[in-house]
């Protein structure tokens, strides 16, 4: 207290007459604060993505008596990132709208479904090891975040739909030059309850929460381990997600689900690898799913995938691939594989007939495809693909007779052009030749469906970014 009562000059003198050990502490703390501030970096970025779509059978064949749809949707994002000693922060606010959705003089949301403004990301990454350690790092990442691994087949940000995907989760991360080992955890609640942990997994507006049109998970835990080597990498995933138990009831003569205590648990485990052999790029994956699904059914399902891409020259690449997912059921056990929280738009056709929210009777899929890419210049490229889709389980008509396993053929072509580093254009056209098996009651269940389905789009992406040090 005697020291604190002195005037400023006395304090100044006292500081410089301290014992060496106290001088070291004071100047060390001062230097540390200065270093932390001086090394901080702020990044601000924005995105304006408009997409005009012509839909004449997107997601499912259109009945012959219905007209095609035409609209423009827009995603607007504002992101900020902050990085300093042992800390990274990320925040993304986004708004998703359809042009004309709001009246030109209305400045407030009139319905829940029209409310497109949301917090897409809000996370902090805390460095648990000092940044001077160059061999490895351990960090804890908390908050709302995108979770992406490997080729995004099972875990991706689903960036093609304008709202995209994110999770409220905690990740413990170990990263080194060769290894990436992550453990993730999530536990969802609808609100701050005074008691109980029952969870209603149905999102507002009754939107699908996963890639196969299922409900939102109650919780999840996972372990991901990936290792890089000279010609590629290999990874292992063990993912466990839980779903709220329920029983069916009737309220006001309307069937409904009543959510109960407890959960059903599903397990997914397997491997992914990608290898580069001179001009050939080969990737493969194998996953097995067991436990119980979101409906409480016993589960035994699998996914197998393999593809090769050959670089003919600097501009042209081409290659085949095959995907197989089990489907159907055997006794009281479901064999329908669910691709978790991935990005199906990248794999099973751009028209999103399979594993993209539009169900197909849990039939499973055989997808034989051929894809090609041509880079006309550094700013212009074209991609094309042809898919032959077959059901991996039996298909029946209304009379109980077996039908062909052929679900249809899809052809896709896209073009990308970068006007500048922050302005890009993308256009695409897809055609789906559907079959009677695809529209049968046990698959898409569409009567009087057209056999030729079309989809076209034009997308403009503007993405400026600024760094401040």
Automatic annotation (TrEMBL):
Short name of any one Pfam family annotated for the protein: Alginate_exp
UniProt cross-references to InterPro entries, sorted A to Z: Alginate_export_dom (IPR025388)
Domain annotation Alginate export: ranges: 42-434
Name of the protein: Alginate export
